[in-house]
Amino acid sequence: MAEAQSGVANYPSGFRGADKPEYEDLARCIHCGLCLNHCPTYRLWGMEADSPRGRIRQMLLVDQGRLPLSASFVTHIDRCLDCRACETVCPSGVEYGKIVELTRAQIEQNYRRPLVSRLLRSFVYRQLLPYPRRMAGAARVLRFYQRSGLQATARGLGLLRLFGLRQKDALLPSIDSRFFFSQLGKTFPAQGQRRARVALFAGCVAQVAFTSLNDATIRVLQANGCEVVVPREQLCCGALAAHAGVRDIARQLARTNLSAFADGGFDAIITNAAGCGSTLKEYTHLFVAGSPEHDQAQKFVTRMRDVTEFLADLGLTALLRPLPLRVTYQDSCHLLHGQKIREAPRQLIRAVPGVEFVEMPLADQCCGSAGVYNVTQPEASMALLKEKMECARSTGAAAIVTANPGCILQLRAGVQMHATGQEVLHVAELLARALQNR
Ligand code: SF4
Ligand code: SF4
How far, in Å, from the CA of 26 to the mean position of ligand 1? Predict the structure, then answer.
């Protein structure tokens, strides 16, 4: 295990806060080890303490007060990508995503992180993401940096390299000229006969950095007979906060979203972000079973769909023109392992005439994006990205297609860093490009 650094806190007689993993969930692990070689961090370092089995063992010992909730424990839990690859292969049905998020909540409530980390976490999860106006303000500052020549100058003079910021700069989203916030409250009519009425979940960062993806998603849905409503009152889904253990904020955001999407007679609620989708589909985990909010979340969850899942089920009716393009696909962890959706995106890619689809080796392994992992654990993230780009290059594909904005950012940075010359697209963007009447 990693050496304890600071802030050791032992709570053998119980924990503060209600959010913690349940013994029954932890005890499901039978220590078989089948997950080990599917775990990216175990594959990187070969350490039991950084494997799913080792982490679950530590969680159990901490919960029983037999291991201190120390910096060492926090380090091993922080190093987990929450990619849930272990969940897919586990024969015992361990819900790893659920228990790691509850363990992070236990840490959040009981462990004092170093000052800088506390300030940054508080700013991002509590002061920024839940507030669209602050998001827009921060995005404008970033856009000024990117468009005014400051970024180009800093890159040209080697200042980013000098201050160790080169990787972080490469991972910055390119801020849009027009934010998607302007589309909130609008309804987009179906083309042709209406086959479904759906609501679009627009995201938080996506509204300042992926406006064109949201636009493309709406166009594809419309072209396939869907009326698309973008409810005005929606907020960030809370996925980043939930993954980091900041569950009070995730719960607060969930409450707002549950009421924003409650009425409207929607056949489905659609997201194009797999990371958001898996949290949205698990809103019930945030509330006590039997509570009114839990019941409300249950209704919400039954209508929640990833855009690829929804379109593959609905069936494409829009006319598609040929796109002569060799394409590979990177599974988004929270689509494949979180939502168990593997075939739908591949089916949609293959439906585009002229596209030559090539499977990528290790497509089911995380690219190292994992929410904010590429910022908090840069070395591990970059090692995973390097392997991913080698796999992507080996396919000879001109485009890497995926299903999550976070993966898109990471893969675009990978293309830049490893000079693979590939384009990175969302499945919805590939379909939008192929629409005959764009
Ligand atoms: S596969 Fe499941 S049961 Fe086996 S060690 Fe991993 S988490 Fe435990
Ligand atoms: S979620 Fe991913 S990184 Fe974390 S233990 Fe499971 S496989 Fe490993």
Answer: 10
Structure tokens given for 284: 């019930």
Banded model confidence at residue 437, pLDDT cuts 50, 70, 90: low
Write down the pTM of the prediction: 0.92
Give the per-residue pLDDT at 108. Answer: 95
Phi then psi dihedrals of residue 169, to 5 deg: -65, -40
Taking a C-beta distance cutoff of 8 angstroms, is the pair 323, 355 a contact? yes
Angle at alpha carbon of residue 2, lines to 76 and 169, rounded to 5° = 65
What average pLDDT is seen over the chain? 93
98 class by beta-carbon count within 10 Å (0-12 exposed, 13-18 middle, 19+ buried): middle
What ligand has the least distance to the C-alpha of 31?
1
Q: Is 85 in the pocket of ligand 2 (CB under 6 A)?
A: yes
Cα-to-centroid distance, 380 and ligand 2 (Å): 13
Q: What is the pLDDT of residue 173?
A: 85
- Whether ligand 2 lies within 6 angstroms of the CB of 52 is answered as yes
Max distance between CA atoms of the chain, in angstroms, equals 65
Q: Which of the 8 DSSP states describes residue 262?
A: T
The atom number, within ligand 2, closest to the CA of 81 reads: 3
How far is 386 from 388, CA to CA, in rounded Å?
Answer: 5
Q: pLDDT tens for residues 153-184? A: 888 877 777 777 777 787 788 999 999 999 99
* Ligand closest in space to the Cα of 34: 1
Distances (CA, A) of 121 to 234, 241, 372, 404, 409: 23, 9, 11, 23, 21
Closest Cα to atom 7 of ligand 2: 39
Give yes or no for a contact between 377 and 78, defined as CB atoms under 8 angstroms apart: yes
Residue 339 CA to residue 45 CA, distance in Å, equals 27
Verify whether ligand 2 is closer than 6 Å to residue 82 (CB atom).
yes
Indicate the helix (H) or strand (E) that contains 425: strand 423-426
Q: Is the CB of 37 under 6 A from ligand 1?
A: no
Distance 284 CA to ligand 1 centre (A): 24
Distance between CA atoms of 102 and 265, rounded to whole angstroms?
33
Q: What is the pLDDT of residues 234-271, one digit of tens each?
A: 999 999 999 999 999 999 999 999 999 998 899 999 99
Closest CA to 232 of 296, 283, 183, 304: 183
Q: Which pLDDT does position 37 carry in this prediction?
A: 96
d(CA 158, CA 171): 17
> For ligand 2, is residue 41 a contact (CB within 6 Å)?
yes
Q: What confidence score (pLDDT) does residue 393 get?
A: 98
> For residue 49, which ligand has an atom nearest its CA?
2
